[in-house]
Design a protein that fits this description.
heterodimer; A: 897 residues; alpha+beta; 5 domains; six-stranded mixed beta barrel; six-stranded mixed β-barrel; globular; B: 122 residues; mainly alpha; Arc Repressor Mutant, subunit A; three-stranded antiparallel beta sheet; 3 strands; 48% helix
């Protein structure tokens, strides 16, 4: 009911203000009464009513607009002869038969002009299709609920610390939260981490998710076979080695064998019984292949209060609001902070909806792309309106004759509107095909985990959107030509000089307006694309602090069961590194816990020896990495002073640490850092600074300088590690050789994420790249359309001014002067467009400021370059027709009149 | 600047919408939606007017003096949110009569030319 009302409000806007003021309320009441009729109650009836209201309303509006214009024009506008006492009296006609007639006539007209029809339909199809495809993505991510049952109840509970709202809690925090809170139907802990599958032909790394039992049930998972976890199976003390696997893994690795449920598989070196299979329609965090009880989560610290690595998902009780759940959790966290002053001081809790968390960072880029595609659609409309206008001018004869035969202005206008609507409907149909392709492409290129969202596809909503856009489009680009045609002056048009001067000038003026609009909108798009590409360049130019060329990285993890002692782990690492270094083509190799730009990271609160003990919960944070000897040399981070970690920094030697320059400057601004001591606040071990390294980016080029520290692997052995290899030549080819080298030490090691550093660098730019690709593509099409637009108008103007040019040349004007005259006219249009476009761009680019890096929204380089590009295109588009004019033979030109 | 009183003949022929609105108002004053309902009933559903056509025509007819707004009738006012009722003017009634006569003449003429199908015997 509201939708119909809203549509009708839009229709009412089309009416002259005076009319709306007088009859608007009555008409609204009329529509409400219609809506109450039972025959319009079913969906089909609604549709019929809406289409009737639109047809009736738009036709009526055009009529009222024309009537209003006539009554405001000068008295001389009155035609001689009998004047009807009913203003704007039209020949008797009924609406529907007229529409059918108009439509038939329009189809005939369009078929007579196939080139025009095809070009217009394709232009519109691109605009409508691209808009619909982008809408499909936005609809799925922002407007539709997530793909879980009652998704509005699903929330993420995070720990707050310092200024950060989204820190990971520790497992005991989760247990306390679960026990003390009343806001949730259930609360579940989850931790994604890869899992080694062994005991079969080839070891394999699976993407795993360590969960508490309620995670699967609160997300509404239903087993395809077997069952899900029971509560006790995932709790400390009562846990049992059971696993739930995904349908994908079941089909891929177990050949969809029904006996898989109940069988035993070896994960992380330990046997687990498969109890159930979840269907591929269920997904949470990418493509999880195996779910294991959280109690089997392999980490150093165990599930202690120090190990902050959980994500906590909850389902609110019905009727509980986010705000009240958040308030309850904050109160609980405050109590915990007092209870556990060492680990929890200064921390709180924060509840937010899963949907908000997921779309937080992607909302802005999505709206930017939607804005860009809308601009493109408007440009496409302006282009087609221009084509229509040129035909309207060419069709003046036809219109005049029909007018002389008694067709009213409204009738002619309606005829043209019908034509444009049919054209846009055609564009819309083709546009749906474009949308299909576009959605397929977008799903491939957008670097976002889509598993949470309802599937992106061209469905009823996208179709409805495309239909709505088509209708609006048809009206937008059809209205101007229709109004223009309706003002055709009969006498002018039928006089011997076909196409009277007045109408001709008006036609060109109107087309000029469209060209200016097109060019101005293109400038906005081009500037947006320009700023984004400058951002990308700036990001690529950032000094990462290390040398990414010819670097190969890969990750692997030792099975905890087999390598339970630190000594075993260090022995393995020592032998593996030696094997890798012996591979031909390897210049150097080292181990590192978190490869830069890989997304892995660790952070610790620290205290400095000799300084005052930091307040609980206020200790400064550093970025921690664990490295083997040779790491700095391998990755290309120069040491500023002191030494690298080496083979002698083992468990028996005094603990050491290498810090970065930012760290050293911050803590010891006036002295050398070497010899000073630091410790992590959750440990009593003091580490001595033995070296200072240059700053290196860890998450991406846009990182701010952060205190960083590196500790040697031998003093902090971990089963999880990565290898970095500096190759003599092409790094990619070394992958299999390095993996073989690791397998020579121990066969039971899946090795994964074999990637070059170059590809990691490219990854960090991924989303920006896609944003630029989309906006850039739209901007290029826009520029092309605008160029075609101005070319069309100038060609038309030249044809129309043939006579004038002939006279000028006969009176002695040179070809060059004519050229300047015509190009000058085009460039005048362009300069108006430049002023408007640059003004609009100055406003619009503020909206994309969040996506920029290293350039301001009013970046002078971009704002200077884009006008040059546009002027060049416009000059070319004007030059071609102008050259034709300058080569006119005056005699031929004059004879043509 | 009106030099003379408009004569009914000046308005002819009427558009179907105007004719039907006049016919609907022949029985007394009505509000817009009721007019549309009446027209649909009188024509057995063949003429269905939307708000654009209806109020467009009403606007022109008021301007032409064929109908006028009336004070809301007593009694049914309180809960009725449609505030404007319309009734036929004397001029409107004469125009309707003239149009009906004209149509009757057209029908008679058609009969003499044998273009009108005779009603089927019951």
């Amino acid at each position: 009911m509201r939708a119909v009302d809203q549509v009708f409000e839009l229709i009412l806007r089309l009416y002259p203000t005076a009319f709306r003021r007088q009859y608007g309320d009555e008409m609204r009441a009329f529509v409400r009464a219609r809506l109450a009729e039972p025959r319009y109650a079913p969906p089909w009836g609604r549709l019929r009513l809406v289409s009737h209201l639109v047809a009736d309303g738009v036709a009526g509006a055009v009529r009222q607009q024309l009537a209003a214009r006539v009554s405001f024009s000068s008295p001389s506008g009155a035609t001689p002869g009998r004047q009807s006492p009913l203003p704007d009296n039209e020949p008797p006609e009924e609406l529907m038969p007229t529409l059918v007639h108009d439509a038939r006539y329009a189809v005939r007209t369009l078929r007579r002009r196939p080139a025009f029809t095809i070009v217009s339909a394709i232009t519109l199809a691109l605009g409508i299709g691209a808009t619909a495809a982008i809408f499909g993505v936005i609809d799925s991510m922002l407007f539709r609920p997530l793909r879980y049952p009652a998704p509005e109840q699903i929330v993420m509970v995070s720990m707050t610390r310092g200024g950060s709202l989204r820190e990971a809690p520790a497992y005991p925090d989760f247990l306390d939260w679960r026990e003390q809170s009343r806001s949730f139907q259930s609360l579940a802990a989850t931790r994604t981490q890869s899992v080694n599958l062994t005991g079969r032909e080839t070891p394999e790394r699976l993407s795993g998710n360590f969960v508490s039992a309620s995670l699967l049930s609160l997300l509404g998972a239903e087993p395809l076979a077997g069952r899900l976890f029971a509560y006790d199976e995932t709790e400390v003390g009562t846990a049992s080695p059971v696993a739930v696997i995904s349908e994908g893994l079941w089909r891929r690795r177990f050949g969809a064998d029904p006996a898989t449920v109940g069988s035993v598989i070896v994960l992380n070196g330990q046997p687990f019984t498969v109890i159930g299979i979840v269907p591929s329609t269920f997904a949470f965090f990418g493509g999880t292949e195996v779910y294991l009880p959280i109690t089997y989560y392999p980490n150093n610290g165990g599930l202690t209060r120090k190990d902050h690595s959980m994500a906590v998902v909850g389902r609110l009780r019905p009727g509980v609001t986010l705000a009240s759940a958040d308030a309850e959790m904050r109160a609980i966290a405050t109590r915990l902070a007092e209870q556990f002053p060492v680990e929890n001081a200064g921390s709180g809790a924060h509840v937010e909806s899963l949907h908000t968390l997921l779309v937080g960072d992607i909302r802005a880029p999505l709206y930017i792309v939607m804005g860009a595609v809308t601009l493109l659609l408007l440009i496409a409309c302006a282009n087609v309106a221009n084509l229509q206008l040129s035909h309207a001018v060419a069709r003046r004869r036809e219109m005049s004759v029909r007018s002389a035969l008694g067709a009213g202005r409204g009738r002619l206008a309606r005829q043209l509107l019908t034509e444009s609507t049919i054209l846009s409907a055609l564009g819309g149909l083709l546009g749906v095909a474009v949308a299909y392709g576009g959605v397929g492409l977008l799903i491939k290129i957008i670097p976002i985990d889509l598993t949470f969202f309802s599937p992106i596809r061209v469905d009823g909503r996208v179709m409805a959107f495309a239909a709505l856009v088509s209708i609006v489009t048809g009206i937008v680009f059809g209205l101007a030509p229709a109004l223009h045609a309706s003002r055709t002056n009969l006498n002018d048009a039928l006089s011997t000089r076909a196409g009277g001067l007045a109408g001709r000038v008006r036609g060109i003026e109107m087309r000029g307006v469209f060209v200016v609009v097109q060019l101005a909108l293109s400038i906005v798009l081009l500037i947006g694309a320009g700023l984004l590409s400058r951002t990308l360049v700036k990001l690529q130019q950032v000094d990462l602090g290390f040398d990414p060329s010819n670097l190969l990285t890969m990750e692997f993890r030792l099975p905890a069961a087999k390598y339970s002692q630190p000594r075993q782990i260090s022995d393995f690492f020592t032998r593996a590194i030696a094997e890798i270094r012996s591979v031909p083509g390897v210049r150097s190799a080292a181990l590192v816990r978190a490869v830069p730009l890989s997304g892995n990271s660790d952070a610790r609160a620290y205290a400095v020896g000799g300084a005052a003990e930091p307040e609980k919960g206020r200790a400064p944070i550093l970025q921690l990495n664990t490295v083997s000897s040779g790491y700095f040399r391998t990755i290309g981070v120069p040491l500023v002073s002191g030494r690298d970690v080496n083979e002698h920094d083992d468990a028996d030697a005094p603990p050491v640490v290498v810090v970065n320059e930012t760290f050293a400057r911050r803590e010891w601004p006036n002295a050398s850092a070497l010899g000073h001591r630091i410790r992590f606040v959750d440990s009593d071990r003091w580490l001595t600074v033995v070296g200072v390294a240059r700053d290196a980016k860890h998450f991406g080029p846009a990182d701010q300088p952060t205190p960083q520290a590196y500790i040697p692997y031998m003093q902090a052995p971990q089963i999880f590690t990565s290898v970095v290899v500096r190759a003599n030549l092409e790094a990619n080819a070394l992958g299999p050789l390095v993996r073989e080298a690791i397998w020579r030490v121990d066969r039971d090691q899946p090795v994964w994420k074999i990637r070059t550093m170059d590809s990691l660098v490219a990854n960090t730019l991924g989303s920006k790249r896609v944003l630029l690709a989309l906006v850039g593509a739209f901007a290029s099409v826009a520029l092309l359309l605008a160029g075609v637009g101005i070319f069309g108008v100038m060609s038309f103007a030249v044809t129309q001014r043939t006579h004038e040019v002939g006279v000028r040349m006969a009176l002695g004007a040179s070809g060059g002067e004519v050229l300047r005259l015509i190009v000058g006219q085009g460039l005048r249009l362009t300069s108006v467009a430049l002023l408007l476009g640059l003004g609009a761009a100055l406003g619009a680019t503020r909206l994309i400021a969040s996506q920029l890096f290293g350039v301001t929204p009013s970046d002078p380089v971009t704002f200077a370059t884009v006008p040059l590009v546009l002027c060049a295109v416009a000059a070319l588009a004007c030059y071609l027709p102008a050259r034709r004019a300058s080569r006119l033979d005056p005699l031929t030109a004059l004879r043509r009149e | 600047m009106r030099s003379r009183e408009p004569r009914p003949a000046d308005f002819l022929p009427l558009t179907p919408a105007v004719l039907h609105i006049l016919l609907a108002l022949a029985d007394g004053e009505q509000h817009g939606y009721a007019i549309a309902q009446a027209v649909e009933a009188l024509t057995e559903g063949t003429v269905r007017m939307g708000p654009g056509t209806l109020y467009g025509s009403i606007g022109r007819m008021v301007a032409g003096g064929l109908i006028e707004e009336s004070i809301r009738p007593r009694g049914r006012a309180a809960d009725d949110d449609r505030r404007r009722f319309y009734r036929m003017t004397a001029l409107g009634r004469r125009v309707l009569e003239s149009e009906t006569e004209r149509l009757a003449r057209v029908v008679a003429l058609a009969r003499t030319k044998n273009v009108l199908r005779r009603p089927e015997p019951a």
